[in-house]
Amino acid sequence: GAYFEDIAIDTKLRNWNQYSAGETGRYLMQHPEADPNWKAHAEGLLDWIEKTFAVDVPATPQYRLVQEEPVQYGKQWGANVISEQTVEDMDKMGSHTSRYASLCALYYEKTGDASFREQAFRSFNWATYMAQEDGLITEAMAEDEFWFSDGYADYIRHFLAGMGSVPEWSPPGENHLLRSSSVVRKVSYRARELSYSTFDENATEVLRLGFHPTRITANGTPLRQRPDLIEAGWTFDAKTGVLRVRHEKSQNVVVSGS
Q1: Rounded distance, CA 234 to CA 250, Å?
Q2: Dihedral pair phi/psi, residue 61, rounded to 5°
Q3: Alpha helices in the chain, H assignment, sequence order
Q4: Which domains does the chain show, CATH number per domain?
Q5: How many angstroms separate the CA atoms of 103 and 142, rounded?
Q6: pLDDT tens, residue by residue, 35-79
Q7: Bridge partners of 246?
Q8: How far, CA to CA in Å, does 172 sit from each of 118, 208, 242?
Q9: Of these four, 14, 78, 82, 180, which has the most CB atoms within 10 Å of its CB?
């Protein structure tokens, strides 16, 4: 039935939405231990979303004000553009397109399939056009509705998730804590130092730095630079400036360098 509150509950199960499928796929990619076939199932869900919601649909009167064609295209400028639900609301929306993009970025991160990185990049770019210069996020192209849930609690976080999966998309030469497996309680940025605290003692983070890290501590104890994060420590890619940190039994991390 319908997930979104502005459409009546469908007791006959004819109204499908992309949200449930997409977030199920996200869970499988973030928790592969829950399903030995997570890769195939996640890709299958993304494929279903594309085939069901990145399709051409009739243009509403609002769309006809900005384009002559009587169609909202499922592919625009090379991007898959996603509708909300199959009954009563197949308009192309920024929040749903950015969600789809974040899922493609995560699938690329987990599998290395570059075609999904490209899909994510194009769909993210399309979704940026829902953001006005004054900071308002419109629900969909040529519409004048501004939903807090869609534009702020939903839309923006998908861009953050995308940069967590593909850190190279974040601003180069700057310091940014992009993602944590925990809740970040506070973060402080300086030119050659970045410090943060997490809610959980055991967590991993993804950062992009504008400096080369030389010392990283967790609760004051130095962490070792490692080739991987099988255990507590950190890795750094000097070409991209991407730092990954794993800390255990500690909440306060300080990254310093030159």
Answers
A1: 14
A2: -55, -35
A3: 18-30, 38-53, 61-64, 94-111, 114-128, 148-151, 155-165
A4: 18-169 (no CATH), 176-257 (2.60.40.1180)
A5: 25
A6: 999 999 999 999 999 999 999 988 877 766 666 778 889 999 999
A7: 204, 233
A8: 19, 8, 10
A9: 82
